[in-house]
């Protein structure tokens, strides 16, 4: 199990325990975290799972991947170097305690 902390733009935090192997988007949707819609089901085709990786975790998650993920992030608002698609972050033991910050809104 991996603990993931989702922090809304307002500062409200949601901590969930999720099984390894699923994505940070799936963990959020399964646990009712507001602000991550995951409309495309994780195919990197909607950008409704845009999040900012907390700076301390960026080395472990890595930046957005070239290709599909970066292209889709072009459709999100207020993208920066910490932007990722949560559906493209697969949870594993190394990410236990991960902190993801949500944008003001999706699209
Ligand atoms: Fe659609 Fe992540 S769920 S891009």
Structure report:
By secondary structure, the protein is of the alpha+beta class. The chain has a single domain (2-101), classed as Beta-grasp domain (Ubiquitin-like (UB roll), Roll), CATH 3.10.20. The chain is built from 3 helices and 5 strands; from the N terminus they run ββαβααββ. The protein has helices spanning 24-30, 58-61, 68-73; strands spanning 2-7, 13-18, 50-53, 83-85, 98-101. A 5-stranded mixed sheet has the order 2-1-5-3-4. A hairpin with a 5-residue loop joins β1 (2-7) and β2 (13-18). The chain starts with a strand and ends in a 6-residue tail after the last strand. The structure holds FE2/S2 (inorganic) cluster.
Descriptive tags:
single chain; 107 residues; alpha+beta; Ubiquitin-like (UB roll); five-stranded mixed beta sheet; globular; binds FE2/S2 (inorganic) cluster
Write the layout of secondary structure elements.
Layout: E1 2-7, E2 13-18, H1 24-30, E3 50-53, H2 58-61, H3 68-73, E4 83-85, E5 98-101
Parallel strand pairs: 1-5
Antiparallel strand pairs: 1-2, 3-4, 3-5
The chain binds FE2/S2 (inorganic) cluster.
Provide the domain count: 1
CATH architecture classification name: Roll
Number of separate helices? 3
Radius of gyration: 12 Å
Which structural class do you get from the secondary structure elements? alpha+beta
* Fold-level CATH name: Ubiquitin-like (UB roll)
Beta-strand percent range: 15-25%
Q: How many β-strand stretches?
A: 5
In short:
The chain is α+β, with helices and mostly antiparallel strands. It contains three helices and five strands, in the order ββαβααββ.
């Amino acid at each position: 199990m991996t603990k993931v902390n989702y922090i809304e733009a307002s500062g409200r935090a949601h901590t969930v325990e999720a099984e390894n192997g699923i994505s940070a988007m799936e963990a959020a949707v399964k646990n009712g975290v507001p602000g991550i819609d995951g409309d495309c089901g994780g195919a990197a085709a909607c950008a409704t799972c845009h999040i900012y990786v907390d700076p301390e975790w960026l080395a472990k998650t890595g930046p957005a991947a070239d290709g599909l993920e970066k292209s889709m992030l072009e459709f999100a608002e207020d993208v920066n170097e910490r932007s990722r698609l949560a559906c493209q972050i697969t949870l594993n033991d190394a990410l236990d305690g991960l902190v993801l910050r949500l944008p003001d809104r999706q699209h």
